[in-house]
Amino acid sequence: MVVSGNWLNEYVDVPKDLTALSERLTLSGTEVERIQVQEVDFDGVVVAEIKSLRPLTGSTKNQIATVTTGDGIADVVTGAWNIVPGNRVPYAIPGSRLGDRRIETKIFLGVASAGMLCSAVELGLGDDAAGILVLDEGAEPGTNVRDLYPPDTIFHLEVKSNRPDLLAHLGIAREIATLFRIPLRRPAMRDSARGTTGRLATIEAPEGCRRFVGKLITGVRVGPSPVWMQARLRAVGIRPISNVVDITNYVMLESGQPMHAFDHSRLAQGRVIVRRARQGEQLECLDGQTRVLSSEAMVVADSERAQAVAGIIGGTASSVTTRTTDVLLEAATWEPRRIRATARALGLRTEASLRFEKGLSPALSLPAVDRAASLLKELAGGNASTGADVYPDPLRPARIVLTLERLNRVLGVEVPTPQAEDILKRLGFVVDRSNSQLTVTPPEFRLDCALPEDVIEEVGRIYGYGHIPSTLPGSRRPLRDIYRAQDADERVREILVGLGFDEAVTYPLTDRRHALDVRLPAAASTPALIQNPVAEDRDALRVSLVPGLLQALALNARLDQPGLGLFEIGTGFWPQAASTAPIREVRLLGIVRHVPPALAGNAPAELRAVEAAVRLVAERVGGRTVDVRQSEGLGFHPGRTAAMLAQGTEVGMAGEVHPAVLTGLDLAGRAIAAEIILTGVVGDESYTPKQSPVPRYPGVRRDLTVVIRGKIPSNDLVQVIRQLGGYTLRDISMLSEYQGPQLGAGARSLSFRLQYQADDRTLTNEEVSTVQQRIIDGLKQRFDAEVRS
Amino acid sequence: MSVNVGNLDAIAVDARQRISAAADEATLNQLRIDLLGKKGVLTGALRGLGSLPADQRSAAGARANALKTEIDQRLNARRQELEQNRLQGLADSEWVDVTFIPEAAVSRGHLHPLTQALTEITAIFSRLGYEVALGPEVEDDYHNFQALNIPEGHPARDEWDSFYLAQGGWLLRTHTSPVQIRFMEAHQPPIRIIAPGPVYRHEATDAGHESQFHQVEGLLVEEDIRMSDLVGTIEYFSRSMFGAERRIRISGDHFPFTEPSIGAAVSCGICQGTGCGSCKGGWLEIMGAGMVHPQVLRNGRIDPERYSGFAFGMGLDRIAMLKYNIADIRRLRESDVRFLRQF
Ligand SMILES: [Zn+2]
Question: What's the CA gap between A95 and A105, in Å, rounded?
Fold first, then answer.
């Protein structure tokens, strides 16, 4: 909302201390975003009309404008290209002054330039230095530009959505008067003739119109509005058009009630009907565009066709022109949802629709029409004739009962009773106090106040929330509801960070074309799609964290940061059929590692490191053992992928990323990825380790090296070793893998370390050797392996 | 070899010389073997004592034993001397350039700044007795809007433009506030929770706005809760998070689900509240808050006559940006390690 200080001064003596004013308004809920002090520091600048433009010989940057101020013409050289003949522009004549600068006739490339044409910046009227300030058509040539833009202070305010009453100078003035406890001057309103007849207007669709007030004004002389009114409208960014249109805008910006003026003679049968649009009904609007309406839209029509899109924009056919003499003024209260829906459907938001969308009080419309009628009489010679006020369901004022004790308790501060009363009265509330109880009736222009809490807010925001002391709530609370999910996440993060992985946070909204690049077999086979994406590559919810993390690897590789390890904890969205929720939200852990091309041979080792990281997380945070099986998965390398199982259930995968996926991402080298369903490895409850006895007798350690051929997973070997090892074999760890020419093609040598232990005695070497030999024989027999001990 | 006292003297002279000439431990060990070992010189001499006449035998025996003790002592003394010298020369002999620390010596990753900020926020509110509650990111219209006093067509819906799923009726939550409703539906007061998590807004991104970001919601519902409790909580949080010297500023605001509604700002740490390019007149907005609207309590199946409470919501991204001086919100989700490794 843009507000003029000159205009506000009509209703309240605006405090001179702009910092204090800005601070108080902001703290009360209306944020002052910017204050622009419009200083007029020029003389001799007048309105000129561009008659013609021609090139300046020898220059590509400048051109010659021939201008007139009404008497005589002059040539001015200008560097601006935003003007066309017919434009009205500020013209600094020879001998004029802009600040400290004298403007004289100057010679450019042999052409005498009589003064200069001015931009908004040169006049101190705005920030736009790009071109000449093009004035509106209401600016008569020869007029002093000082009269168009008198010195003023322009306030840029952010009004909260529940306060459409503040989208008006009078509303802001009331706030200032209340905050500073100074008098408010309501605009003078001459009582206009109130002849009411139902014939002028009827409502056929009451679901869209709460109240319709119309008044016929006859004998209007259409012309320019007075300079003071034009100046006020210009100051807040509204272009003056004609006295009739300017008055409707003026009343809107004064009171908050949007209005429309019809040329009465252009309305068939001289009356209007409020109805729903016919499906596909067309209307040529005031902005020159023809719009097609749906049957959800409301229109103001005559007996033949729509003449205005209700509450949004008027139609050309019945608009006020210089030939108009009889004007039908409209001030209506439209149903906000319908206005909002129609404005959206038309892609058109106007000063009027912005106000109606927020829900205006129907109490505003009658005074607005009276005010406009009074201004029309004064400024355009019009006489109020018949009127109509169709208001089937009048507003019933709310009565709110509130005890002072409650007011003070909710705020947590003692507001002096007379001050609380004074605040409410200045805001327009009717207050009735008996003892410690207030009975409050909000002003009829405030629909946002219905509950005691609303009244408390009014007192609080004006009294000043800064007066509320700081306390902390305290009461006895039962012990319950221990939520540990975050704790587990924290421990997972600490472990992975300790292993050298960096944490990433990537976008949940992703590109549907990449959403399934890599994913778990248990995941959904299609991503959930967004009906209204903001960008084409953000049109689906991620199924897996891995594609986003791989993109992060690719980005970093391009930034000369190859070989990274990243992880993320986040939600995977898996659409599910027939359930209470359409999406299963799965808490996932994703880990990726880039292996640069030069180190491609390390890919198996990096994969094993990632597998080990997952097992470590499961063991430390969840107290669970993760088993690994050779497997295959979408987007994973067919020979280098592991399924990860906890307590017999598959909880994730780890593997090298399929080379084709990397090609698609333009990532050179290799990449490792793991994706784990976090709740599957860490559980719901945080795991606490439990101590078991430390061995009392020394154990025996024996190493074992097995040479095998073919794709035999070492898991199978471990299983056999464990079976044959019996009670004294406590632990088997994998030491190393070797492949080389000495072993021959397809052969691998695997080393294991076996830990033997008994609880009741020291094991003898002979005892262990017997078991070890049994294992060696078994491995030879089962896997055709060579075994060295 | 004939053994006599003169012979022993020669052994003694030779041994003394060789011991004092020994330059390291290994030489000393070899000397001990050569002199005192089973096949050593002195052992051989002692063995030869038996062939001496009885009158000479005891004197030579005494002399040989004395020599054996002397050699043993000299060997030990020389060993100690050498050890002394070695320790004195350590600074040279074992010097290491301790200022050369290779990058790979300790490999450690970095926690994301959003994680670090959230950990700190969670710790602050834990001290005030809050638990962490979570809710779904895919929400229904009721929990995201209607239960929070934002019916269909409400003008405030424009402030929360939503992403809708192609599958009808579902949207991505536009704020963490629906967790308030879900928690109240399942629990009676007293309630003290914070609810962190991702939220989604259907809007274009720029340095200050993201369509996907994180929020932290707070809800407290007990008997006799006042605005002063809310103000105190905001002050406790702000000064814990940003520094004890910071001040807070409470202004009027509007949210459909709180009444009264307020906005909270913290004094700027750069200009100390006098106003600079990083703040708005000395203040940085950090959260919206207010007393829970009675209808919202009722929607959460809580009796507003008996209980009252407050709620607050802040952008985790914004808090992290203020805390770590991050200028562009988009940096947070790019995963550029040159950014991530600064935290
Ligand atoms: Zn500052």
Answer: 8
- The verdict on B140 and B262 lying in the same domain is yes
Angle at the Cα of A17 from the Cα atoms of A15 and A19, rounded to 5 degrees: 120
User: Which residue has tokens 């492949």?
Assistant: A739
Number of structural domains in chain A: 6
- pLDDT at position A740 is 85
Instruction: Note whether B293 contacts A453, CB cutoff 8 Å.
Output: yes
- Taking an 8 Å cut-off on Cβ atoms, the answer to whether B251 and A581 are in contact is no
Is B323 found in the same domain as B238? yes
Residue A497 phi, psi (nearest 5): -65, -40
Range of the domain at B29: 5-93
On the CB side of A130, CA atoms within 13 Å amount to: 4
What's the predicted TM-score (pTM) here? 0.81
Q: Which of A22, A159, A503, A560 to mutate to test the interface with B (most CBs of B within 10 A)?
A: A503
Test B336 with A498 for CB contact under 8 angstroms: no
Please provide residue A735's backbone torsions phi and psi, each rounded to the nearest 5 degrees.
-100, -60
End-of-domain residue from the set B36, B62, B93: B93
- Does residue A99 register a pLDDT over 90? no
**A:314-353 residues touching chain B, CB 8 A cutoff:** 336-337, 340-341
| Residue A694 is assigned to a structural domain of this protein | no
> Quick check: is A473 in a domain?
no
Interval A66-93: pLDDT, tens: 999 988 889 999 988 899 999 999 999 9
Q: Give B14-39 pLDDT, tens digit per residue.
A: 989 999 999 998 999 999 999 888 88
Task: Inspect the interface and report whether the beta carbons of A500 and B109 lie closer than 8 Å.
Answer: yes
The ipTM value here is 0.80
